[in-house]
Amino acid sequence: MTESTHKKRILIVDDDPEITAMLQVMLELYGYEVRLAHGVAQGMAALTADPPDVMLLDVMMPQISGLELCRYVRRDPRTEHMPVIVFSARANDENVRQAMAFGATLFLKKTANREELLAAIDRALGPA
User: Whole-angstrom Cα distance, residue 117 to residue 120?
Assistant: First the structure.
């Protein structure tokens, strides 16, 4: 498979299996290769095994915040430049500021529609 035909790989890290399943189906329909991680520990393992092209990361998860995973990504030389789209139901100014301070590339409300999500992924990935 050449670089031009390479499917972009997305890692979705969220503790809600219904949300991850819905996002996976939708993004696969648009040609992305999607992997799921249900929580920060699974997300770290997935990043270590095979870093994706972009990560879609929930903030509010049990035990460890998604923002800690974002900080981990930025500290690892293998993933420090990987785009991280933080998505959260809590999208007030303080939460957005905090996510960006932890290294998020973009912040997206969980209520975003399909077009907003796809546009955010395109923006995060940059020019092909």
Answer: 5
Identify the burial level of 24 via C-beta atoms within 10 angstroms of its C-beta, where 0-12 means exposed, 13-18 middle and 19 or more buried.
middle
Helix (H) or strand (E) holding 98: helix 93-101
Q: For 78-100, what is each residue's pLDDT tens digit?
A: 999 999 999 988 777 888 899 99
The one-letter amino acid at 11: L
Say if residues 11 and 52 touch (Cβ distance below 8 Å).
Answer: yes
- 33: helix, coil or strand? strand
pTM for this predicted structure: 0.91
Question: Which letter, b or e, does each residue of 60-89 get, where b requires 16 or more Cβ atoms within 10 Å of its Cβ?
Answer: ebeeebbbebbebbeeeeebeebbbbbbbe
